[in-house]
Automatic annotation (TrEMBL):
Stored InterPro entries: EMC_subunit, MMgT
Span list, region Disordered: 93-112
Location of this chain's protein in the cell: Endomembrane system
Protein name per UniProt: Magnesium transporter
Species of provenance: Lineolata rhizophorae
Main location per the UniProt record: membrane
GO cellular component, one term: EMC complex
GO process terms (BP): protein folding in endoplasmic reticulum
Signal peptide: 1-22
Membrane-topology descriptor: Multi-pass membrane protein
Length: 144
């Protein structure tokens, strides 16, 4: 995770925790008062003070920015782009994969293609290998 994103998430979490605690204390303070002890005609007894509301909103914004910065890159929306990236990564050497790091389609430490189990099921005809065998056969002159 990006250190800036981690710092923003930590600060946002602290601000949100403090805002929630302040809102709880504010509501608990006026919950124990009898109705006659409350200031007459004051709507502030039932609503939160402006500083608590602003702190809550600021903490949510800081948390949102931190979460967005910490999130991994999005996968392409188009299936052909995503599948092409997976196939190119499968042909890479381990050094090239290490250089990609977190930018890999499946993320670090994963094999990349989540559908590999379905594509390599035993008993099914492998179209790509047969197509390659046919192309090799044609290049050799079409003789058995």
């Amino acid at each position: 995770m990006n250190p800036i994103a981690g710092l923003l998430n930590f600060i946002g979490f602290l601000l949100l925790t403090h805002a929630v605690y302040s809102a709880h204390e504010h509501s608990a303070l006026f919950a124990n008062l009898p109705p006659t002890a409350a200031p007459t005609g004051s709507p502030a007894v039932t609503s939160l003070p402006t500083d608590i509301v602003l702190e809550t909103l600021a903490s949510v914004v800081v948390l949102c920015v931190g979460i967005v910065l910490a999130s991994p890159p999005l996968k392409p929306i188009q299936w052909r782009v995503w599948a092409g990236r997976i196939e190119r990564e499968e042909r890479m050497t381990p050094e090239q994969k290490a250089r990609l790091g977190n930018r890999r389609v499946g993320g670090p430490g994963t094999s990349g293609n989540p559908f590999r189990v379905l594509e390599e099921r035993m008993g099914f005809w492998d179209v790509r290998s047969k197509r390659k065998e046919f192309a090799d056969w044609v290049r050799e002159g079409g003789k058995s």
